[in-house]
Design goal:
- The protein has 416 residues and is an alpha/beta fold.
- It is built from twelve helices and 23 strands.
- The strands form six sheets. The chain has a four-stranded mixed β-sheet. Strands 4-5-3-14 form a four-stranded mixed β-sheet, covered by helices on one side. A four-stranded mixed β-sheet has the order 6-7-9-8.
- It is globular, with a radius of gyration of 21 Å.
């Protein structure tokens, strides 16, 4: 599928979709709950559907309604001995977090996925699970992967270039039968671990960690309670309409965002102010506009690699030099986002240099229209669409259906 975006300016009001990270974590907590949970206004996306498929395969009853998802959980240990191979589609979050949750089962569970998932290694997670007594079968950490509990507990060390590795262990460890201790010599994307810890806190699940998060201790033997309520809106998705407002300059209001939420991507709004935008909060609404020049700068994206594509676009248009730094792990996402964005922006007329851990961009260039490969990456597809709003001609994006992975209404939003 391809979509052509013509230059134009967005104004008006945009309702921000629910958070993928919150939705998937709530589904997994609900799976491990013995009883009914209700997720109100969750994200309806391909990633969510992959996680629902996994929950059903592990024995949960999941009812999808227009404004909510109702889950009858299985508690723990998970004992659905008829689980088939689980296809997680394009959802790395479902794969990594699901591997740990499925390791609470005493029967083998096999995971597979699409072509991109086949290129994303889970070896760090699998090594840790093996150290905790879980049986693992894979080819160098790539799907198809089979795990089989029980999870006996113990002490393991795991490097986490993506926070999903640690979040996976933290979500499942409370339901193990014994203590799990986790050494973390490397941790990127800390705000997502904070989100996972918030779920443990809200469930009154005991755990301990050092101040620098290099060590966690989870006693085991705990249980999840029903998890209900509205799923928070997604700051990662909000970055795209916010970026459109930064480029166009006209006021655009985003609805549904809670700035008190732990999502790390909310830092984008601070960066927009630093770049010359006006950002006005009114409860859970935020209005972004710009009257002066958009300015470049230096931005550390270690905690927020999902912002690499949209920040690269904004810096390409901004005056002056920009550096996106400390985000080498962006190479491990759906595609190598550093290499892909450098190549795409250069092809559109930007002056963009690929660094080992980020991008160096000489901004203020005029971007031109052409056909661009979206690399099968939802965030690259959406970032290029935002770039097209200020280009000299239309930009056609192939693989544009990828936007539905996390933002199913994205293309409709572009005509606000």
């Amino acid at each position: 599928m391809y979509t052509t975006v013509i230059p134009h300016t967005l104004t008006g009001t945009v309702a921000v979709p629910a958070s993928k990270s919150h939705t998937i974590r709530r589904l997994l907590c609900a799976l491990m709950t013995e009883g009914r949970s209700t997720l109100v206004d969750p994200l309806d996306s391909l990633d969510t559907r992959s996680c629902i498929h996994m929950c059903r395969a592990l024995g949960a009853s999941v009812t999808v309604c227009p404004d909510r998802i109702i889950v009858e959980g299985v508690g723990h240990p998970i004992d659905n001995t008829h689980a088939q191979a689980i296809d997680v589609g394009n959802s790395g979050t479902t794969l990594f977090l699901g591997l740990a949750v499925a390791s609470l089962a005493s029967f083998p569970v096999t995971f597979t996925g699409d072509s991109q998932i086949h290129r994303r290694s889970a070896q760090h997670v699998l090594d840790a699970l093996q150290g905790l007594g879980v049986k693992v079968s894979s080819s160098n950490g790539y799907v198809p992967i089979t795990v089989q509990g029980p999870w006996h507990g113990g002490r393991v060390s795991i490097e986490c270039p993506t926070s999903q590795y640690l979040s996976a262990l933290l979500l499942a460890a409370p339901c193990a039968s014994a203590v799990t201790e986790i050494e973390v010599p490397l941790l990127n994307e800390k705000p997502y671990v904070a989100m996972t810890c918030n779920y443990l806190n809200n469930q009154n699940i005991p755990y301990e960690h050092t101040e620098d998060w290099s060590f966690f201790r989870i006693p085991g033997g705990a249980s999840y309670k029903a998890i209900n309520g509205r799923v928070p809106a997604d700051f990662s998705s909000a970055a795209f309409p916010a970026g459109a407002a930064a480029l166009g300059g006209e006021p655009l209001t985003l609805e549904g965002l809670d700035y008190a939420d732990v999502q790390g991507d909310k830092i984008l709004f601070q960066w927009l102010e630093q770049m010359g935008c006006t950002v006005q909060w009114n409860g859970q609404k935020v209005t972004v506009s710009r009257h002066g020049t958009l300015r470049g700068g230096t931005f550390d994206l270690n905690a927020v690699p999902d912002l690499v594509p949209i920040m690269a676009v904004l810096c390409a248009y901004a005056e002056g030099e920009s550096f996106l730094t400390n985000v080498r792990h962006a190479r491990l996402k759906e595609t190598d986002r550093i290499a892909s964005m450098a190549a795409i922006l250069t092809s559109l007329g930007a002056d963009c240099e690929e660094l080992s851990d980020g991008l160096h961009i000489h901004g203020g260039k005029t971007l031109h229209g052409r056909t661009v490969d979206g690399c099968g990456d939802h965030r690259i597809v959406m970032a290029v669409a935002i770039a097209a709003l200020k280009a000299t001609e239309a930009i056609t994006i192939t693989g544009s259906e990828a936007a539905s992975v996390t933002y199913p209404g994205f293309w409709e939003m572009l005509v606000v």
